[in-house]
Amino acid sequence: MPKNSKVTQREQSQEHVTESVADLLAHEETLDYKNSSLNVGGVAGKKVPQIEVPEDDGRPAWNSKLQYILAQVGFSVGLGNVWRFPYLCQKNGGGAYLVPYSILLLLIGIPLFFLELAVGQKIRRGSIGVWNYVCPSLGGIGVSSLMVCGFVGLYYNVIIGWSIFYFFQSFQYPLPWSECPIRRNGTLAIVEPECDKSSATTYFWYRQTLNITSTIAESGGLNVKMTMSLLVAWIIVCLAVIRGIASSGKVMYFSSLFPYVVLFCFLVRGLMLKGSVDGIAHMFTPKLEKMLEPQVWREAATQVFFALGLGFGGVIAFSSYNKIDNNCHFDAVLVSFINFLTSILATLVVFAVLGFKANIMNEKCVVENAEKILGYLNSNVLSHDLIPPHVNFSHLSTSDYAEMYGVIKTVKEGGFAQLGLEPCLLEDELNKSVQGTGLAFIAFTEAMTHFPASPFWSVMFFFMLINLGLGSMIGTMTGITTPVLDAYKVQKELFTVCCCIVAFFLGLLFVQRSGNYFVTMFDDYSAGLPLTVVVILENVSVAWIYGTKRFMQDLEDMLGFRPCIIYFYLWKYVSPLCLIVLISATVIEMAISPPGYNAWVQELAQERFESYPPWALAMCFALVIVAMLPLPVVYIARHFNLMSDGSNKLSVSYRKTMMKDISNLEEQDESRFILGAKPGEAPSSFPIQPQSPHRESLQSSRPVYRNTRFPK
What is the rounded distance in angstroms from the CA atom of residue 380 to the CA atom of residue 374? Predict the structure, then answer.
């Protein structure tokens, strides 16, 4: 160090000078930069060593790599893999849908998932801290992520509450949704009309579970059963996340693995059922012409986007608890493919069971229509000559009915419609698209009533849904708590409990009798467009503002190897372009699709599309605006210096790295830093390494602000 440097002068004068950045950093232990990959000016040709995480970082860490992988898998694999992916696969060309899905998974899914893992692991902060550091002007990205997590968590836990209710209802035989209830009027017993017009499972869902109103405007008051189920759901979530990853990591061992046990059990049992092969064959029969439709690619991109949990902040939060030299590229590829294979497994299970259900419903259709034909034969409406001689009504097969139906339709061409006969085609039953709550709480529950030992399978199925939802909720809550705990010194347990209590009371909106309509509203508007905007801004801030070359160098310093060059082009050009197209398609769809919901009409015992009233429409747009509002607010506030850039809230590893920058810059321009400390204390000496102008890194890219104080 030069004799006239400020540090040397300070040691000689022993004068008290106000503590500044350099002094606070100087108190930290010495870091050997020669043996660290933070040394960006190392000798060419040598293998980049692993980055050593400072022992006094103070940040919690995963107990093992397995625990971390299970946490990421538990967060990304959720209810959508079970009830959304199979529906999209059926709707968009069966096996052909897997082609656009796989392509988009490689083009935008894995690269963006890798990006989030990398920035979280490198900066070791939650979503707010990460984006404050990468680009302070776009620091609102983290706040928007937190807002979306809050909105999604509110209604997502309601679904867990529904699953808890069905779970406890499954401990009885026969299952309570297996038969329609009987209404007694004196000595007369009749089937409940609403159930008779629909089905036992549909009636149990809409009337006995939700007790739903006919419109969103009719509140109907709180549903006590659903309120208690929601309370239980929030207690479970609170206990799982109350100690951060110390508690949630242990929960993940069970909640992430148990659904796979259930799915494999259901697959084996489903393949033993009559008609399961029909369902699977129908599922994966490719309709190649569908691949040419833009809508198929848009829905595939949306599913890839949400399946991996991009933009929620949970991915970044989980990754921030990793060791800084963890191979996050391997993690990104592994978790993405586990997610994809889980979706395929869930699709096999769903359509094996729905194929069984379709066969039962088809046989029921044949029996009902055969009775109609017998009635027409007995009343001489139809001639016995129309019935093929080999047909036996006591053992009527679907092929015999199809032959008989064809003959009657040909002969009675003019008056056939008046007979009211149905074709009873298995294909028609298999083509009935069911998704979301309709799949889990109606179609699947109806199929399970025909299983031997149906209560056992019902308990297993809904316990699986609870665990799938719990894994996603843990990630969502971590996306909320981690950024706040990073920024403010609050007690973790107290803050977590307060969040859960507030969320429970806000969630009472969804357990009114009209609550299901609000779940649909939040699902449609609170996450879709805001999250897409958040992720494209994440992509742009790293690839275009921070710089893709610089980011690639950071990854090499952190991982010990340089990622494939294809990521450079994916992050810089392909992913932003795909996301812009996705945002445009989403906005166009929102503009041309009338905003509304499917209301359950009790008198008709069926759903009917209803438009949102003005106040509900305003609520829909408010959800979108509130979720995205932090983006322009933070940008304007920092542009006019109305708020700090938040860059002072860095981890210990970054403080030590910035000490290296100070040492380098001190040789060039000593006047850039105000140096001072307590009398008699001297800063640690760091070896000065020459830096290549072509090897900029995340550590040296950010300016060091004068008199900035870092929290200890």
Answer: 10
The string over 446-469, giving b where at least 16 C-beta atoms fall within 10 Å of a residue's C-beta and e elsewhere, is bbbbebeebbebbbbbbbbbbbbb
In terms of DSSP bridges, do strands 188-191 and 182-185 run parallel, antiparallel, or are they unpaired? antiparallel
666 and 683 Cβ atoms separated by less than 8 Å: no
Buried b or exposed e, range 299-331, using 16+ CB within 10 angstroms:
bbbbbbbbbbbbbbbbbbbbbbbbbbbbbbbeb
Q: Which one is predicted more confidently, 161 or 95?
A: 161
Radius of gyration of the chain (CA): 31
Query: Distance between CA 15 and CA 191 in Å, rounded?
Result: 93
Residue 597 in 3-state DSSP?
A: strand
3-state secondary structure of 439: helix
Closest by CA to 118, choosing from 548, 657, 646, 711, is: 548
Distance of CA 679 to the CA centre of its chain: 54
pLDDT, one tens digit per residue, over 371-394 is 888 888 888 788 777 777 777 777
Helix (H) or strand (E) segment spanning residue 191: strand 188-191
Cβ-based neighbours of 31, under 8 Å, separated by 6 or more: 38, 54, 656, 659, 660, 686
- What is the crossing angle of helices 110-123 and 548-559, to 10°? 70
- Locate tokens 């801030």: which residue? 541
Please give, one letter per residue, the 3-state secondary structure of 143-169: HHHHHHHHHHHHHHHHHHHHHHHHHHH
What are φ and ψ of residue 108, in 5° steps? -125, -30
pLDDT for 655: 45
Q: How far apart are CA 510 and CA 73, in angstroms?
A: 28
Quick one: tokens of 34? 């020669």
Where residue 702 falls among pLDDT bands split at 50, 70, 90?
A: very low
Q: Which two tokens stand for residue 433?
A: 């698209």
Q: What are phi and psi of 703, to 5 degrees?
A: -70, 150
Cα(642)–Cα(422) distance, integer angstroms: 70
Measuring CA to CA, which residue among 264, 327, 403 is closest to residue 50?
327
Quote helix, strand, coil % in the chain, to nearest 5.
Answer: 65, 5, 30
Matching residue, tokens 């625990």? 67
Give CA 597 to chain center in angstroms.
22
Tokens of 370: 């055969």
Q: Give me 695's structure tokens.
A: 């090897």
pLDDT of residue 688 exceeding 50 = no
Distance CA 539, CA 478 (A): 22
**Of residues 76, 594, 642, the one with CA closest to residue 85:** 76
Tracing tokens 């109305």 back to the chain, one arrives at 642
Q: Is 339 annotated as a binding residue?
A: yes
- d(CA 682, CA 126) in angstroms, rounded, equals 33
Contact 249, 61 (CB under 8 A): no
**Chain Cα centroid distance, residue 182:** 41
Q: Is 700 annotated as a binding residue?
A: no
Ligand-binding annotation for 468, yes or no, is: yes
Give tens-digit pLDDT for 422-474.
888 887 777 776 666 777 788 888 888 888 888 999 999 999 999 999 989 99
Q: Please return the burial class of 98, using the count of CB atoms within 10 Å of its CB with bins 0-12, 13-18 and 19+.
A: buried
Determine whether the annotation assigns residue 74 to a binding site: yes
Q: What angle do CA 538, 311, 296 make, to 5 degrees?
A: 100
